[in-house]
Amino acid sequence: MYAVLIDAPEAEAARATAFWSAALGVTAEPFAPQPQFTTLHEALPGLVTAVQAVDDAPRIHLDFETDDVEAETARLLALCAERISQWQECQVLRVPGGHVVCVLPVETDPETFRAQANVWP
């Protein structure tokens, strides 16, 4: 797993960011390349944690990073996930129980990814 995203409706994203930053005792910093994201630094050690402004209902979703988006998506679909959309290179899936996960290409540095990645048979 790569990230935990706290999705907040766009009109509430700033207030949600202020709340989560204070509640978790961490600093919040806008992610310049994609302004809908605000990073909550070190909220969950080892994982990217961010508030994402969305045009949707509030929720929390997980991001899985992989060096083969198609294969990881197929693996999760075989586990009864359903594809609901695509955003850039990311596949957005709904998993049993109704939660949303995103499957995205490697975001961490390649050496760290290779050292920490799960390898499926």
From TrEMBL:
<dbReference type="InterPro" id="IPR041581">
    <property type="entry name" value="Glyoxalase_6"/>
</dbReference>
<dbReference type="InterPro" id="IPR029068">
    <property type="entry name" value="Glyas_Bleomycin-R_OHBP_Dase"/>
</dbReference>
<dbReference type="Pfam" id="PF18029">
    <property type="entry name" value="Glyoxalase_6"/>
</dbReference>
<feature type="domain" description="Glyoxalase-like">
    <location>
        <begin position="4"/>
        <end position="104"/>
    </location>
</feature>
<protein>
    <recommendedName>
        <fullName>Glyoxalase-like domain-containing protein</fullName>
    </recommendedName>
</protein>
